[in-house]
Amino acid sequence: MFSRRMVLVVAVLGLLLLNIAALTVSSSRPDSAEGAAPLALHLTAPFQKGLTATLGWIRSIWHGYFNLVTTAEENEVLRSEVAQLREQLNGYNELKLLNGRMRSLLSFKEAKARNMVAAMVTGKDASLWYRTLIIDKGTEDGVAKGQPVVVPEGIVGQVIEASGRYAKVLLITDRNSSVDALAQDTRARGVLKGGGAAECRFAYANRNDTIKTGQRIVSSGLDGVFPKGFFIGTVSEVHKGVSGIFQEVAVTPSVPFDKLEEVLVVLGPEAGS
Amino acid sequence: MAVIGYILASILLILVQTAFLPQIPVRAPFDLMVVQVVYTALALPRLKGCGVILVTGVLVDGLSGSPFGFYLTSYFWLFFSLQIAIQVLHVYSRVLIYVAVLVGILLENLVALLALSVSGVNAATMVWAVEQGVEQLLWGALLGPLVYVLLAVGYRIGGGLTRGIVCQLEGGDGV
Question: Cα–Cα distance between A159 and A149 in angstroms, integer?
Fold first, then answer.
């Protein structure tokens, strides 16, 4: 009744439609790779780690050689600087003690100490549309989905997948990322959304709020994921249109994502703090 | 044996893209796996090639932050289209390889646009994605053939080494 070619064409069209439907469902669900991601991490992440560690070792030897040449000259200069800095350090220690006493006097609550685990970045997303990292700590180290990832420079992102010894981190620059944030000085609130490229958007910032270029953006802690007061970036551009209730604000993240080698995963508030 | 070799080559390319290049630090200007898919489609029979593409797609999807199936879809339909093209046109010319790499990049970008539109992004992001696509196509047009040649050389060397090892094993131990 039907020719073989006809059946084949119908089958291919059916498969194509099924594929588009599956991809549509997958795109609207952020945790769509639940089964495959840990498998892929198990299979390739150890090799990524090995390769990254080897390259890091080669780079450190290379840098070490050049450093050695300049170190001798710098040594003399540094010795005199150390003497001056020691003097300054004494002063700072005094100030630190004074600060501690003042805080307790004013009943300022210390920021909660957090339980963190350091992890090495073993791989980065090859995709040009999505921004993720692979780190060498997983569920065996207490890492779980939804935990924030930070570095001293600021917020990196959050864990979206975790296998036994590896985890995948969604960067704040990814368009699927959102962080509830504040302008540090004016306390103007908004949601920091990834722009896909190097910049982020400070979305839903009220038009009447004062936001200027160079202002620091920090996490508000209201999203329940990122701890309050973590630095995210600085405002690089502000645009107020002729209409609308929000203003368009571009933020340059403080974290150098291209140079990230180690990160800290925030496991939760430290027991007893 | 060939399937294992091709899967290992895929893993090697994944490592180059996700661990080696970011260390330099360089981001691949287009998805190098597209070239691997083209090479596999031209070199392996349909069923074996399909197996390699499925494993490659799942691995790349698992390591990426993209929605699951994004790469699998792109690689599978590129592989399928190439198989049809070879069957209909009966050619394995250099022009076909060149066009196939560009079609692969284009296909991947179309799938990306579909995935982005489904997840409800704004117009600015869509414009950015289209710009990315054009940029990737230009880089693919420029570097695609070079990557293909390098991959072909890699396969030739790898194949030669494997044959040598197998011959030694057969000669030495009588396996």
Answer: 7
Cβ separation A43–B22 shorter than 8 A? no
Report how many domains make up chain A: 1
Does some domain include residue A10? no
CA distance B172 to B44: 30
Q: Domain coordinates of chain B in residue numbers?
A: 2-146
Cα B70 versus chain centre, distance: 13
Instruction: For A214-273, write each residue's pLDDT tens digit.
Output: 999 999 988 888 888 889 999 998 988 777 788 889 999 999 888 888 888 988 765 444
CA distances to A173, B72, B105, B113 from B84, rounded to whole Å, are 39, 18, 18, 25
Angle between helical axes of B2-15 and B46-63 (0-180°, round to 10): 30
pTM: 0.76
Mean pLDDT, chain A, rounded, equals 82
The confidence band for A113, taking pLDDT boundaries of 50, 70 and 90, is low
The pLDDT of B148-158, averaged and rounded, is: 91
Digit-coded pLDDT (tens) for B110-146: 998 888 888 777 787 888 889 989 999 999 999 999 9
Contact at CB, B128 and A196, closer than 8 angstroms = yes
Cβ separation B65–A168 shorter than 8 A: yes
Q: At what angle do helices B33-43 and B46-63 cross, to 10 degrees?
A: 170
Report CA-CA distances (Å) from A179 to A133, A167, A272, B33, B153: 18, 20, 27, 33, 47
**pLDDT higher for A94 or B109?**
B109
Helix (H) or strand (E) holding B76: helix B70-89
pLDDT per residue over B40-56, tens digit each? 998 888 899 999 999 99
Residue A72's pLDDT is what?
72
Q: ipTM value of the model? A: 0.77
User: In chain B, which residues have their Cβ closer than 8 Å to the Cβ of A44?
Assistant: 11, 14-15, 18, 59, 63
Tell me how far apart the alpha carbons of residues A132 and A158 are, in angstroms, rounded to a whole number: 9
CATH code (residue A232): 2.40.10.350
DSSP state of B19: I
The answer to whether residue A145 is domain-embedded is no
A219: β partners: A181
- Sign for the pseudo-dihedral over CA of B5, B7, B10, B15: negative
Nearest to A196 among B14, B73, B125 (CB): B125
Instruction: Report which of B70, B59, B57 is spatially closest to residue B119, judged by C-alpha positions.
Output: B70
Q: Which domain holds residue A215?
A: 178-258
